[in-house]
Amino acid sequence: MILPIVAYGDPVLNLKCKPITPDYPGLKELIANMYETMYNANGVGLAAPQVGQAIRLFVIDAEQYDEEKYKGSKKVFINAEILERSGEPWAFNEGCLSIPEVRGDVMRPAKITIRYQDENFKEHTEEFDDIPSRVIQHEYDHIEGILFTELLSPLKRRMVLKKLDQIKKGIVNADYRMRFAKAFQRRR
């Protein structure tokens, strides 16, 4: 089932998310729905807060950038913890499904080492670099309550303030269903 994506301005996007256990209700269905929602919106990653769940869960699939180069990058991350960030930081023009029509260059380290549990709660410690590292760091920020717009240069942040305010109010064109903060009504 395709879920509505929570829009910028909803407080759930700024929460540090809680760990979960294997008995979390409806977890398998939630993971399947998150993948379906992500693909429907042409995303490469989606974190649980983006579908209204303040839990430490995100999914990625960097194969959409390059199927051969990033083969095997489709993964579920539960209770993830980045252990190390290394390598030369590099800029990449990021966007976010919760913040449509806003993009900006974000500097991130080239490599990460991350410990996480998969959908079967088997623990893994892996190193990622390149685009998978970037996507994981972006989604990891979501479960820490950090949005990519907070990592933009001060000038770029000022430049997108008006657009962020419009998104909060529901004034946005997205090709997918969105959920806006209760304080605002969606207008098109």
Question: How would you describe what is shown here?
Answer:
With 188 residues, this protein is α+β, with helices and mostly antiparallel strands. The protein has one domain: Peptide deformylase (Peptide Deformylase, Alpha-Beta Complex), CATH 3.90.45.10. The chain is 23% helix and 25% strand. The strands form three sheets. Strands 2-3-4-7-8 form a five-stranded antiparallel beta sheet, sandwiched between helices. The protein starts with a strand and ends in a 9-residue tail after the last strand.
Topology at a glance:
Elements: E1 5-6, H1 27-40, E2 45-47, E3 57-60, E4 75-86, E5 90-94, E6 104-108, E7 111-117, E8 123-129, H2 130-143, H3 154-168, E9 178-179
Parallel strand pairs: 1-9
Antiparallel strand pairs: 2-3, 3-4, 4-7, 5-6, 7-8
The gross shape turns out to be globular
User: What is the SS-derived class?
Assistant: alpha+beta
Number of domains: 1
Q: Helical residue percent? A: 10-25%
Q: What is the distance, rounded to the nearest whole angstrom, between the alpha carbons of the first and last residues?
A: 24 Å
- Give the biggest beta sheet: 5 strands, antiparallel
Q: Please write the CATH class name.
A: Alpha Beta
Mean pLDDT over all positions: 95
Annotated CATH architecture:
Alpha-Beta Complex
Oligomer: single chain
β-strand number: 9
What is the CATH homologous superfamily assignment? Peptide deformylase
Q: Report low-confidence residues grouped into runs of 5 or more.
A: 184-188
Radius of gyration: 16 Å
Strand content: 25-35%
